[in-house]
Amino acid sequence: MAGMSQVEFTMKYNMRLSYIQYKGKKRKVDTGDQLATKDPVDLDSRIDYGVLECILEIFGEMNENGCLPDIATFNSLIKHLCKIRRMEKVHELLDKMENTKGHYTPNPSTYSYLLKSLKKPNEVPVLLGRTKKNGCVVTPYIYNLILKLFMDWNDEEGFSSIWYKMERNGLGPYQRSYTIVVHGLHNKGKMEEALQYFLRDDVKGIDTRTTYQIVRQSH
């Protein structure tokens, strides 16, 4: 730690964490391209748990060297635990982050990883309530994640509710929001509805290839 501040020391470890996760993801791609495995799910699981072991080793090393973790450090662990569905550990860690005010109070990125791991519509308001209780601002990015979840779940009521909240709070809907809706409706074969969203005056920048397919298939 000689010659480095605490912030620089922590940042160095965070860069290692990011690199480990990147290498794990790349290894999956490379292995999938090169090997014809009989059980790709098992192979992916072994890679994921190998990455987790490396992350935990870095946490241990930080502790031994007196290096304090920050929110980016904890988010790296939260992200990977969500990915491998260790949700009990995720919530245990989140409780610790929420109850210990300081360098690792949960931020929008923290909750975005949890949102991506949700499986049912009724889990969304619970997580949003937790976000609000912790004083974390719900960003347009978070709203768009929720929009996509409700679109994927085909939950029209949930989708309409979030769309209304975005408008009411002045946080959209933006171009990304419309892109999610148009692509989602297109993928579900609802061409007329998708076209209606695309033709709104306040929408610009939606992917032209998908738009062409929508226009062609709706006529």
TrEMBL record:
Annotated InterPro entries: PPR_rpt (IPR002885), TPR-like_helical_dom_sf (IPR011990)
PPR repeats mapped onto the chain: 70-100
Keyword Transcription: no
Gene3D superfamilies, alphabetized: Tetratricopeptide repeat domain (1.25.40.10)
Keywords annotated in UniProt: Repeat
Entries under NCBIfam families matching the protein: PPR (TIGR00756)
Descriptive protein name: Pentatricopeptide repeat-containing protein
Source organism (scientific name): Stephania cephalantha
Record lineage: Eukaryota, Viridiplantae, Streptophyta, Embryophyta, Tracheophyta
